[in-house]
Amino acid sequence: MEVRAYLKGARLSPQKAGLVADQVRGLEVEQALDVLSFSKKKGADIIKKLLNSAISNAENNENADIDNLRIKSIIVNKGFVMKRIKIRARGRADRMKKPFCNIEILLSEKLKEEKAEAKSGTES
User: Fold this and answer.
1) Which domains does the chain have, with CATH numbers?
2) Which own/partner pairs from 49-53 qualify as long-range (CB within 8 Å, at least 24 positions apart)?
3) How many CB atoms lie within 10 A of CB 71?
C-alpha cells in the first residue's frame, strides 16, 4: 500500500527544500515528524504540513496504521519562477527571481522483515 501527497507551488526554492527533504527521506513517520519539529528551516514547516496531510490520507482512505508507515520517497521538483523588478541607483533596474517548488511525498507500510528487526533490534 502506498499513499502520496503532493504540494504544488510552495514558496520556497527547490535547493532549500531539498536540504530538508534529505533529512527525512527513508525515516519512519514519527521520527520524521520529530526531525521536522526541531528544525529551524522554513522548508521544515512546509514539509511537515505535507507529511501530516499524507498521514491523514493513509488513515482515512487506506485505513492504515500510523505506526507502520515510513517515507518511501520525497521528491522536490522545480516549480515556476516569479520575476520581479528591483530598483537600483541611477535609474537602473535589475530582475529578481523568486523560485517556487513542487514537493511529493510517498508513504508506504513497513515490510514484515523491517517490523521484526525493529522489535528485536539488530543483532550483529
Assistant:
1) 2-110 (3.90.470.10)
2) 50/5, 50/7, 50/103, 50/105, 51/5, 51/24, 51/105, 53/5
3) 20
Cell of 11: 514558496
Count CB atoms within 10 A of the CB of residue 19: 14
All three cell numbers of 108, joined, read: 508506504
In tens, the pLDDT along 55-84 reads 999 999 998 898 999 999 999 999 999 999
* pTM across the whole model: 0.85
With a pLDDT cut of 70, the percent of the chain lying above it is 90
